[in-house]
């Protein structure tokens, strides 16, 4: 699932393009809800039409009926592209810094001490978008490992549904104007300045790549990993899910987080009334209850 859910900007359809009929829009609403967990209201019709016109042109399809037929024949083959089209990946390095402060000041030192005799440390960035979140996590993890002189087996899993977002996450190359959340010290330490055709870009250090595994994943479908995770970051992903979808997702997270482990949500998200498996311990920070 892309990191940010459905965009709210007013996308107007191109003049002269095919119209999104009632039957096609209802099919797309059902399809997106089933496979992405996003409920598209009637007020999103113009946005969907405007966004999908570009996809129709790329596929050389004449109308939305043809696109719906493509989804019927190969739902999984086109799902990632559809999710990318109707969603907006809004993310940045060290967004919601208080989460990283908690990791740096308390959680990582504790985990590394607990696991120094052979344990594993695992963090999952669920909805990693274009990679800024997992690479920011990798920076603080690498720094914590150095401070502790630790050789703990530590890894970050980064997953998303969007093929375009994952392509950039794999590349690890970002425009300099998107580096605002990274301190000068960390820029010097963890990034290489691009040259030639990469002028104006920064590329993540190989050490960060070693810590991060990037994989495609739909949060609503089967999960290949078994955990356990010390922490899961699922920020700005569930805000547009309906209540039953959120409840199912949080239940699944509870099955993968260590008792006493942590789940981090976005600033507009809450687990209130949705799960008894976690307790609120900070600003959008939840801890898995210990039985």
TrEMBL record:
<dbReference type="InterPro" id="IPR022641">
    <property type="entry name" value="CheR_N"/>
</dbReference>
<dbReference type="InterPro" id="IPR000780">
    <property type="entry name" value="CheR_MeTrfase"/>
</dbReference>
<dbReference type="Pfam" id="PF03705">
    <property type="entry name" value="CheR_N"/>
</dbReference>
<feature type="domain" description="CheR-type methyltransferase">
    <location>
        <begin position="20"/>
        <end position="291"/>
    </location>
</feature>
<dbReference type="InterPro" id="IPR029063">
    <property type="entry name" value="SAM-dependent_MTases_sf"/>
</dbReference>
<comment type="function">
    <text>Methylation of the membrane-bound methyl-accepting chemotaxis proteins (MCP) to form gamma-glutamyl methyl ester residues in MCP.</text>
</comment>
<keyword id="KW-0489">Methyltransferase</keyword>
<keyword id="KW-0949">S-adenosyl-L-methionine</keyword>
<dbReference type="InterPro" id="IPR026024">
    <property type="entry name" value="Chemotaxis_MeTrfase_CheR"/>
</dbReference>
<dbReference type="InterPro" id="IPR022642">
    <property type="entry name" value="CheR_C"/>
</dbReference>
<keyword id="KW-0808">Transferase</keyword>
<dbReference type="Pfam" id="PF01739">
    <property type="entry name" value="CheR"/>
</dbReference>
<dbReference type="InterPro" id="IPR050903">
    <property type="entry name" value="Bact_Chemotaxis_MeTrfase"/>
</dbReference>
<dbReference type="InterPro" id="IPR036804">
    <property type="entry name" value="CheR_N_sf"/>
</dbReference>
<protein>
    <recommendedName>
        <fullName>Chemotaxis protein methyltransferase</fullName>
        <ecNumber>2.1.1.80</ecNumber>
    </recommendedName>
</protein>
């Amino acid at each position: 699932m892309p990191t940010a859910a459905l965009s709210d900007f007013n996308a107007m359809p191109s003049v002269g393009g095919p119209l999104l009929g009632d039957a096609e829009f209802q099919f797309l609403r059902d399809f997106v809800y089933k496979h992405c967990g996003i409920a598209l209201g009637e007020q999103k019709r113009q946005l969907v039409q405007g966004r999908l016109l570009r996809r129709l042109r790329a596929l050389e399809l004449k109308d939305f009926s043809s696109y719906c037929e493509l989804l019927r024949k190969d739902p999984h083959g086109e799902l990632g592209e559809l999710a990318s089209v109707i969603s907006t990946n809004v993310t940045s390095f060290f967004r919601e810094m208080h989460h990283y402060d908690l990791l740096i000041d308390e959680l990582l030192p504790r985990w590394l001490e607990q696991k120094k005799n052979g344990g594993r440390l695992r963090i999952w960035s669920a909805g990693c978008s274009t990679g800024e979140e997992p690479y920011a996590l990798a920076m603080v993890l690498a720094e914590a490992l150095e401070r502790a002189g630790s050789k703990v087996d530590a890894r970050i899993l980064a997953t998303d549904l969007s093929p375009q977002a994952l392509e950039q996450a794999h590349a690890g190359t970002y425009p300099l104007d998107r580096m605002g959340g990274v301190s000068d010290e960390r820029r010097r330490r963890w990034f290489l300045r691009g040259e030639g055709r990469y002028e104006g870009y920064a590329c993540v250090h190989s050490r960060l790549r070693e810590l991060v595994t990037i994989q495609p994943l739909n949060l609503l479908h089967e999960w290949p990993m078994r955990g356990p995770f010390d922490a899961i970051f699922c920020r700005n992903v569930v805000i547009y899910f309906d209540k039953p979808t959120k409840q199912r997702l949080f239940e699944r997270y509870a099955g993968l987080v260590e008792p006493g482990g942590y789940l981090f949500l976005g600033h507009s998200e809450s687990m209130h009334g949705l799960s008894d498996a976690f307790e609120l311990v900070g600003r959008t920070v939840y801890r898995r209850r210990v039985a």
